[in-house]
Design a protein that fits this description.
heterodimer; A: 206 residues; mainly alpha; B: 255 residues; two-stranded antiparallel sheet; 2 strands
Chain lengths: 206, 255
């Protein structure tokens, strides 16, 4: 387990960042962006998968690398897709930290545990994402989820409960599928291509 | 990802020649200012952004990228606020059971103005700032070089990985992969598409990290750059003006 002193902890964080780590981060970023494109082709409703690269890096390297990947996912999406992504950067950082620490503690070893990880990510997304959507964007996201918000508004909810209601419907689906996909994909990586830092996933190396 | 990706438009206008750090300062100040400003100032800001875009010769590119982003946001705002924010209860338009409330529409329109400023400022920044020059300028200001590498490498990897994803999609479909049908099938199809994508990317990271190491990636010490970036008096003036503008708006809000 971790060295209780602060320098030991910082050392652990620093040890995460080898040259291979610095190369894996852009890959995680690009994978997150491209996963959104693949979902668009395969067309699964209520799925965005823009946290997939972050969760994969969390499994393959560790929490701090995943947090940094999260920063760059939204920075890069803001650059090439839509500047409004910049506002949601804190979410991706939190996803990376949460998934990374849970991966190290073996939360990706059983299917039900992976579902729990997905639900934790969904809670983070609701708690942090809803205020950003309401305060910075007046409650809209510019995606199909707005129809769900409009539905809740039509039932008489105020803007806060409507947006929270919308995220309660959409986020658990997206985040649980993201966590399961990340685990299934990480499990299928042949041993010789797995980074040495990778956490144990599903039934591998039991 | 609908439509064409937003990208840098090479040119040599006044806006392009601004120091990248100036543009970062202006971008942050524009976005903060848009949220703080009263309506007349917001309109002036929008006019300034549109003027800067046409001055830089990226007016059409920014417009084409902004429309698909802003239309869904605008429609969403109009529906979520215009139809359901009753306010004082003054109706603008009533068609059957659907009523458009005056207060909600006003709120939606003013908020749409803020979001338009946000998106225009972002797109103007992206279309006039060369990513590598941005990286070099931020490194000069003390941002770790490795972060700059991550940023530029990510931007370059996206189209590369996207091409690869397209090829994998074709290859798996030719082997009978079903990308339609039930949600369960589609999610399993995603595993079949994303696994080779990740493994391919992991293999290439090995080569990439060896290549970077061979070029002294982890050596400390000063580096020289291909780009020489100058800070003109205009840069300093704009930075000071932007920061003062935001400070003035904050003061106005607080008073």
């Amino acid at each position: 387990m971790a060295d209780p002193t602060e320098s030991g902890y910082l050392d652990r964080v620093r040890r995460e960042f080898t040259t291979q780590t610095w190369v894996l981060i852009p890959m995680g970023v690009a994978l997150s962006v491209v996963a959104a494109y693949v979902v668009n082709v395969v067309k699964v409703p209520f799925l965005y998968l823009d946290a997939l690269g972050v969760v994969l890096i969390a499994i393959l390297v560790g929490p701090w690398t995943a947090a940094l990947t999260g920063v760059f996912v939204n920075l890069v999406e803001g650059f090439i897709v839509n500047p409004t992504f910049w506002a949601y950067t804190p979410l991706q950082v939190a996803f990376g930290l949460a998934a990374g620490y849970m991966a190290r503690r073996g939360w990706f070893r059983r299917y039900w545990k992976v579902v729990v990880v997905g639900l934790v990510l969904a809670i983070i997304s609701i708690v942090m994402g809803a205020p950003i959507t309401v305060l910075a964007f007046g409650g809209v996201t510019g995606t199909g989820s707005d129809a769900v918000t409009a539905f809740f508004r039509a039932t008489g909810s105020n803007i806060w409960s409507a947006v929270v209601g919308q995220t309660l419907v959409v986020e658990p689906i997206d985040k649980v599928v993201t966590a399961l996909l990340a685990a299934l994909i990480a499990e299928r990586i042949p041993a010789r291509y797995r980074p040495e830092t990778a956490a144990k996933v599903l039934d591998r190396d039991r | 990802m609908n439509g064409e990706p937003v990208a840098y438009h090479p040119d040599d206008s006044v806006v392009h020649r601004l120091h990248p750090v100036t543009k970062v300062v202006l971008l942050v100040c524009c976005i903060l200012g848009a949220y703080l400003a009263p309506v007349p100032v917001l309109l002036a800001l929008l006019a300034a952004l549109a003027g800067a875009a046409s001055l830089a010769g990226v007016g059409r590119a920014v417009g084409r990228a902004a429309v698909p982003i802003l239309v869904p946001l605008g429609v969403g705002l109009l529906v979520i606020h215009g139809l359901f924010t009753k306010g004082a209860g003054v109706a603008l338009l009533a068609v059957g059971p659907v009523t458009l409330w005056r207060e909600g529409v006003l709120y939606a329109v003013s908020f749409f103005g803020v979001l338009t400023a946000f998106v225009l400022a972002g797109l103007l920044f992206v279309t006039t700032t060369h990513p590598k020059k941005l990286m070099v300028s931020l490194t000069e200001k003390g941002v770790p070089r490795k972060l700059g590498y991550v940023f530029v490498a990510s931007l370059q990897l996206v189209p590369d990985l996207q091409r690869r994803a397209g090829r994998i999609l074709d290859a798996q479909r030719s082997r009978g992969l079903d990308t339609s049908g039930s949600p369960r099938n589609r999610i399993l199809a995603l595993v079949a598409l994303l696994t080779p994508l990740l493994i391919g990317a992991l293999i290439s990271t090995r080569t990439r990290s060896l290549a970077l190491e061979a070029r002294g990636f982890s050596i400390e010490g000063p580096r020289s750059s291909l780009y020489s970036l100058v800070e003109s008096p205009l840069d300093h003036a704009l930075r000071v003006a932007a920061v003062l503008g935001v400070v003035a708006l904050v003061a106005w809000r607080l008073v």
